[in-house]
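Progress report, Aim 2. The chain analyzed during this reporting quarter is listed below.
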Amino acid sequence: MDAVFTTTNRMDRIRTSIESLRNEIISHPLYHIIQDVEDLKIFMKYHVYAVWDFMSLLKALQSGLTCTSYPWFPVGSANTRFLINEIVVGEESDVDENGIRMSHFELYLQAMKQAGASASSIETFIKVLQLTNDFDGAFNAANTPRAAQNFVTNTFDVINTGKAHVQAAVFTFGREDLIPGMFMELVRDLHQKFPESIGTFKYYLERHIEVDGDHHSHLATEMTAALCGNDDQKWSEAEQATVLSLKHRKLLWDGAYDEIRARRN
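Predicted structure tokens for the chain:
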């Protein structure tokens, strides 16, 4: 009972330390400045990078917490294996609004194309990165917005720590626990403004609100608690990485907001 109570307190400490940043992101003026499809295209150009690197963070966790090579050997606890594999199934092989299997990243690309947003930047980035494994070269070739570059770089800094507890904390508090509140503001009026162009995007947002706001968020929280355990150092590292990831999320939103405002001017 004491261990559970201590873990709860540590979770609450992280939530308290990120509360102001989280509120800034959830109430960011970006959501309200999006007034037409052209504004939405700018937003998607930035956000798609966060959708892509989320999948990379997810797979880094799966690689560290399970055996993803052969011959197979048991890795870690069966409970954490279950938690991460359950999330991977939902993120990597969900269904679109027509029941067709695809990852959430592929669903997002489909939403971009329906809205008339160019996916050439992210597609060029991925193609060059696959060929060269050179992030800077891929960013340059794709003309990736600076704020998106910094966001992705921070995500891969987290991945490259090789510390599952740090990755899990950023995944939980910087992604899964954040997404429902963050998207709720955006999806509220979007469909009324331009329903024919954003049907798939609306589905994507509502799917995240439904899945991440309930099932995945709880799984990720349990996974973080299990990986940090009663280790004060791990909880401290988890908190610091989460705060930094949220700062980069705000800067990503700032970048999209500034570009939309510049378009208006």
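The mean pLDDT is 89. The first helix runs from residue 2 to 17. These observations will guide the mutagenesis work planned for the next reporting period.
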